[in-house]
Structure of Thyroglobulin type-1 domain-containing protein:
Amino acid sequence: MGIWIALVLVAFAAGAAAQTCQCNTMKWATCDGTPCVCTVLIGENVKQPLNCSALIPKCFLMKVEMYRAKKGQSVRGAGGKPVESAFVDNDGIYDPDCESNGNFKAKQCNNTEECWCVNSAGVRRTDKGDKNIKCDKLVETHWVRLQLTHKPVTTPLNASGLKAAIANAIQTRYGNFDKSMVQDVEYDADARMIVVDVKKPIGNRQHDLANMAYYMEKDVKVLPLFKNDELKFMPSLGGQNVEMENILVYYVDEEPPTFTMKNLSGGIIAVIVVVVLAVVAGLLVLFFAQRRQKRMYKQAQTSEMATMS
Ligand SMILES: *[C@@H]1O[C@H](CO)[C@@H](O)[C@H](O)[C@H]1NC(C)=O
Ligand SMILES: *[C@@H]1O[C@H](CO)[C@@H](O)[C@H](O)[C@H]1NC(C)=O
Ligand SMILES: *[C@@H]1O[C@H](CO)[C@@H](O)[C@H](O)[C@H]1NC(C)=O
């Protein structure tokens, strides 16, 4: 009798393990064994072990994407309809060098002779140079601005409830996230634009804004990285789910970047890294300038898409 109960319990345990041996935060991972170990291919026969209880570090994600792109494998969601904005995915991507914990190495060369320095989000913050370029340390991104455009809604959004709705949605979807980091939310109903500032105190190394922003970028562009890619980043407000259709991420680092202004824009993921003190004025100017130039943006995107195909 005791043996039977034990056997049943073992069977139960095995069943439960099989159920949960999967990687919710990385759909391309392979999981196996007891205890469950998940890995993902980041090179020919190079398996990167993953901690699937957390968001996968962006550096590993970029390696996976580069590897899959090289192999001609899809980097898109299986179920997600490709949308016009989906092409932006490859822009700004390179094959990064990662630390063993998933941090970016401060110096990146994309397997070429040309190198540059990046911030903790892996985004270039210096001009490109040769292999001898010096990058003393990895400079932390402590502020990201998410400029989201939402799809048309039936009832106008209640702007004063938006901040809480966004913070909740971020916490639900990207886990282990301190809601107080969602500091400012601006809303422009005519442009359907929501501007979200997510900031952490300078010196804070507990939270990583880059991973959260990267997962959100993928979610909005209909290429979710999560195993369950039917769910999306969708704030809920006044009984209405607000679906996003575009996102632009700006990065602000703890130290100002050193590249020349003319190299500042370019690519779809526009990258602005500004002096902390100049930032408020600067970004406001940009915000309004961009709204005026929305038409130009659209044209630029269309022509880039044409060259890609
Ligand atoms: C995996 O991530 C979770 C959540 O961040 C953390 O609590 C845990 O310590 C991590 N496990 C390992 C082995 O690093
Ligand atoms: C990195 O190299 C790949 C090809 O190896 C190229 O497609 C990509 O544009 C490069 N990215 C950067 C940022 O240089
Ligand atoms: C908008 O949201 C605020 C805060 O949640 C609430 O106090 C207010 O009544 C809402 N207004 C409308 C018109 O629903």
Summary: The chain has six helices and eleven strands. The pocket of 2-acetamido-2-deoxy-beta-D-glucopyranose (ligand 3) is lined by residues 158, 160-161 (CB under 6 Å). The longest helix spans residues 2-20. Residues 55 and 199 are 18 Å apart (CA to CA).
